[in-house]
Structure formats: structure tokens, C-alpha cells
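User: quick one, sequence for these C-alpha cells?
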């Protein structure tokens, strides 16, 4: 499924519109079948920018769900960082709903992991609340560090 999704995603931009749509739908279906969360998140993240807006939002949601489940801290942070700019382009209401769920999942991990993930998602924080949100996030991190070193 991984190779099929990659091949179709690579070919799709070069195809005529009707065949492009079919290839992208097949690539999305193949990416969804990838069992490894890291590989599925990578495939969906690569595919999302090529999709029409209605499918793009769904693919970004699925990619985020897969990325949140990646156990390895570095791999998860990389997947989240790769996804952040795509997420930041979503309508604010949709992004906020995704952010709430993501923050809940990520906050259940160790502090080090959460901090790494927050850094990877800085574009999302910025999209949700401008530079003020980034400042408040930094202040919260500093406060927590003072109280619980």
C-alpha cells in the first residue's frame, strides 16, 4: 500500500484532471491502509497538498490522528512539524477542534515529549492565536519550569 500510494501521488500532478482525481483517490485509499502509524502519517502528509480541498481537510485530520499515535518522540515531532503548515491553513474553527484533541493526547505524555511536540506545532499555535499565542505558550512553559523543574 505504501509504494502504491507513493507512486500514484508522484504521478498525479502530471495527469489530466479526470485521471488525476482517480489517481489521488486511489492514493488516499492506499495510504489509509498502511498499518504503521509513522509510514501512514508520512504518506498522508505527502498526499494532502495534492488533494482537492474537501479531501485535503479529511486527509490532514487523518494524518494528525496517525502522527499523534507515533510512539517515538523524534519521529512524532518530525511528523507533526511536517504537518503543521497544512494544518495552519485550515479554517480556524476546524483547526481549533483538532488542536483541542491533539493537546489532550499529547499532554498525556511526558513533559519532554509535550514540549518537543509543541515546538513542532508552532505554526498551528500561530495560526490559532497570532504571535500573542506563541508568547503565552512560552510564558506557560517558563512558569511550569519554575514550579516543577
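Assistant:
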Amino acid at each position: 500500500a505504501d509504494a502504491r500510494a507513493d507512486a500514484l501521488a508522484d504521478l498525479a500532478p502530471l495527469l489530466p484532471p479526470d485521471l488525476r482525481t482517480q489517481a489521488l483517490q486511489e492514493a488516499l485509499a492506499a495510504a489509509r491502509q498502511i498499518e504503521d502509524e509513522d509510514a501512514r502519517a508520512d504518506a498522508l502528509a505527502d498526499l494532502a497538498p495534492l488533494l482537492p480541498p474537501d479531501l485535503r481537510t479529511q486527509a490532514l485530520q487523518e494524518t494528525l490522528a496517525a502522527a499523534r499515535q507515533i510512539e517515538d518522540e523524534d519521529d512524532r515531532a518530525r511528523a507533526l512539524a511536517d504537518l503543521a503548515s497544512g494544518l495552519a491553513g485550515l479554517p480556524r474553527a476546524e483547526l481549533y477542534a483538532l488542536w483541542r484533541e491533539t493537546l489532550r493526547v499529547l499532554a498525556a505524555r511526558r513533559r519532554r515529549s509535550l514540549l518537543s511536540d509543541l515546538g513542532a506545532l508552532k505554526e498551528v499555535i500561530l495560526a490559532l492565536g497570532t504571535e500573542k499565542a506563541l508568547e503565552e505558550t512560552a510564558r506557560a512553559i517558563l512558569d511550569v519550569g519554575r514550579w516543577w523543574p
